[in-house]
Amino acid sequence: MRALLSVYEARYPREAEFVVGYVGADVPVELITAAGALPVRLAGDPDGDLSAGDTYLGRGLDPMARSVLARLLAGDYGRLDKLVVSRDCEASLRLFYAVRELRRIEPAFGLPEVYLVDVLHLPHRTTTAYNLARLEQFRQRLRDWTGRPVSDADLAAAIASHDEQRALLSSLAAARREGRIAGSDWLAVVGAGTVLPVAAHLSLLRELSTVDLPEHAGKRVFLTGSSHDTPHVYRALESAGHLIVGEDHDWGDLWYRRRVDGHTLLALAERYQYNGPTAQRSTVDERRALIAEGMRHAELLIGYARRGDEAPPWDFAGHEGLFYERQDYGRIAL
């Protein structure tokens, strides 16, 4: 556990021959791995200066995206050879446009070339065909960037590794639901996998799976609402006597919930098409079912929504629990 926590606390910069920073859970990291590059997911910093992000994105946008832009401009992530953004929410899309335009008009900022992966989530065959075409385009762009074609064998191997990663996390999640991994530590267990090479993360997960983990005290909570790219809110809830045993955001359980279960580009396209369900891209009924599933292991439902993240409060209706809306990024007014 200590090694995973250490990686998570010092996520940036990461050193590799070719580093691809990415924003959003719809970026197909398997393709980046198959191209021989390191996918590194970019997190914001609630304690950092958001002013540069505010200047170019405006204060009305989700502060997580504003923080990521501010950190990009400050060079906090170290060397990023390229940047990939998914259209998982409006904030990510606006971040993409801002970085692309700033790179054009302010080359002195040194921002990396940015690429949009436009994955859609409608349950139609036409959507699958659209996503497959987008992933094929991304595959070719990775070839152009790295000079290395992504063969079918490379892709199959990368998918197998990332699916093993998801399987190990799913297995360890059982220990977490039993109260043997604190919620803030779980963010580190998952989050380390967003910056490490998949093989390195697999090694640490296998090691953790052999450890006899002690049980933590606290009222068991399922956390719904906004995503959490840092442990700030989790630690505040833990300090108040809560033990978070599950959540429905893509820096936690949703990051590994759905596997590819295939070895082709089509299987990969379908995995990202049906990934979720996130608050921004799913129906209220889908989210309600996910909350009901999570509450099987919890005593209390807590809903949390950041300022500028407008989707989550729709999920709170009809549920009993504690709900915190319009919260500052990384903060919760308990």
Write the layout of secondary structure elements.
Blueprint: H1 2-9, E1 19-23, H2 29-34, E2 38-41, H3 51-57, H4 63-74, E3 82-86, H5 90-105, E4 113-117, H6 125-146, H7 152-177, H8 183-191, H9 198-209, E5 219-225, H10 232-239, E6 242-247, H11 265-273, H12 284-294, E7 300-306, H13 313-316, E8 322-327
Parallel strand pairs: 1-2, 1-3, 3-4, 5-6, 5-7, 7-8
Helix pairs in contact: 1-8, 3-4, 4-5, 6-11, 7-9
Would you kindly provide a written description of the structure presented here, covering whatever features stand out?
It is a single chain. The protein has 334 residues and is of the alpha/beta class. It has a single domain (2-327), classed as Rossmann fold. Helices cover 45% and strands 13% of the residues. It has helices at residues 2-9, 29-34, 51-57, 63-74, 90-105, 125-146, 152-177, 183-191, 198-209, 232-239, 265-273, 284-294, 313-316, and strands at residues 19-23, 38-41, 82-86, 113-117, 219-225, 242-247, 300-306, 322-327. The chain has a four-stranded parallel beta sheet with strand order 2-1-3-4, with helices on both faces. Strands 6-5-7-8 form a four-stranded parallel beta sheet. The two termini are 29 Å apart.
